[in-house]
Amino acid sequence: MVTTVLRKFDMTTTVTAKGQVTIPKAVRELLGISPGSSVDFVRAPDGRIVLVRADKKQPLTRFAKLRGHAGEGLGTDAIMALTRGDE
Predict the structure, then answer these.
(1) Fold held by 1-87
(2) Total-model pTM
């Protein structure tokens, strides 16, 4: 989590009728937020709401780690022949 506080800037933004706000450029640059990025709002112990960039990569499950893509290899007929014991 980013703990840097931007004390050099007074950053105020207005909430639109749709509940949207513009994240100031300095904050977007600091957090690496670009169009399409996801952000999380986290409640700090002192009650403040903190904006953090959401990581898109979720930890892989054991099953997901085993998933992959087979490259070129045996075709279906060859695999079936091996399964049946055909030579």
Answers:
(1) Pemi-like Protein 1; Chain: D (2.10.260)
(2) 0.50
